[in-house]
C-alpha cells in the first residue's frame, strides 16, 4: 500500500515539474528598457535610447513610458520629446506633457518610501506596427530646468496585446 502512494506522489512531482518547465519556455512578448539618469540630474542633451524588434504586424501592441523619480521631484508633470524610428525611416518625435501627480492626490504610480515609478500608456489603446523590423526610440526631457533634478530613470515598455 505504501509503495502505491509513493508511486503516485513521484508521478505527481514529475508531472508538475514538466508543466512548470514547459510554461517557463513560453515567450511573454514584452520589451522593456530603462536608462538610469546619472546622479538623478537629467541634462537636456542626455537621451535615453534603445531598440526593439517587431516581427508580428498583425497583433496590437501597447507602448508605455516608464519613469522613476524621487519624492523630491519639484513638479506635477514632465515635458518629454519621445522619438520613434521605424525600420528604414527617419525618427518621428512627439512632444508629450506627462502628468505625474497633483496636489490633492499626490503622485501617480507606485511608491516605496521616497521612490515613485509610473507606467503611462502612450498610444491610448493598443495599435499595430506597420512593418516588421528593428525600431529605435529616444526619450529626452524638455523642461525649463537644466538639469532636471530627482529623475532616477526613464524607459520604454512595449507589450503585445493578448488575444
Report on the architecture of this protein.
The protein has 163 residues and is mainly β. The chain has one domain (30-160): Jelly Rolls, CATH 2.60.120. Helices cover 14% and strands 48% of the residues. It has one helix and 13 strands, in the order αβββββββββββββ. It has one helix at 2-24; strands spanning 30-36, 41-42, 48-54, 61-70, 77-85, 92-99, 101-102, 106-107, 110-112, 115-121, 133-141, 148-149, 151-160. It has a five-stranded antiparallel beta sheet with strand order 1-13-4-10-9, with no helix packed on it. A hairpin with a 6-residue loop joins β5 (77-85) and β6. It is globular, with a radius of gyration of 22 Å.
Question: What's this model, at a glance?
Answer:
The model is unreliable at 19-27 (pLDDT under 50).
Unreliable runs? 19-27
Largest sheet: 5 strands, antiparallel
- By DSSP (H or I, 4+ residues per run), the number of helices equals 1
Strand order of the largest sheet: 1-13-4-10-9
CATH class: Mainly Beta
| Mean pLDDT across residues | 88
Remind me, CATH topology?
Answer: Jelly Rolls
Number of strands: 13
Distance between the termini: 47 Å
Tally of individual domains: 1
Identify the CATH architecture: Sandwich
Rg over alpha carbons = 22 Å
**Class from secondary-structure proportions:** mainly beta
Q: What helical percentage do the residues reach?
A: 10-25%
Shape: globular
Order of helices and strands: HEEEEEEEEEEEEE
Proportion of strand residues: over 45%
- Assembly classification: single chain
Amino acid at each position: 500500500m505504501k509503495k502505491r502512494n509513493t508511486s503516485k506522489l513521484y508521478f505527481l512531482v514529475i508531472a508538475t515539474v514538466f508543466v512548470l518547465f514547459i510554461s517557463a519556455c513560453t515567450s511573454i512578448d514584452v520589451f522593456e528598457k530603462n536608462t538610469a539618469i546619472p546622479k538623478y540630474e537629467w541634462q537636456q542633451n542626455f537621451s535615453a535610447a534603445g531598440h526593439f524588434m517587431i516581427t508580428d504586424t498583425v497583433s496590437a501592441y501597447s507602448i508605455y513610458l516608464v519613469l522613476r523619480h524621487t519624492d523630491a521631484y519639484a513638479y506635477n508633470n514632465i515635458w518629454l520629446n519621445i522619438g520613434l524610428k521605424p525600420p528604414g525611416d527617419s525618427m518621428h518625435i512627439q512632444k508629450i506633457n506627462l502628468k505625474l501627480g497633483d496636489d490633492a492626490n499626490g503622485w501617480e504610480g507606485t511608491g516605496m518610501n521616497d521612490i515613485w515609478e509610473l507606467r503611462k500608456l502612450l498610444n491610448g489603446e493598443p495599435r499595430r506596427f506597420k512593418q516588421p523590423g528593428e525600431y529605435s526610440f529616444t526619450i529626452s526631457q524638455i523642461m525649463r530646468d537644466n538639469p532636471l533634478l530627482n529623475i532616477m530613470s526613464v524607459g520604454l515598455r512595449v507589450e503585445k496585446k493578448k488575444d
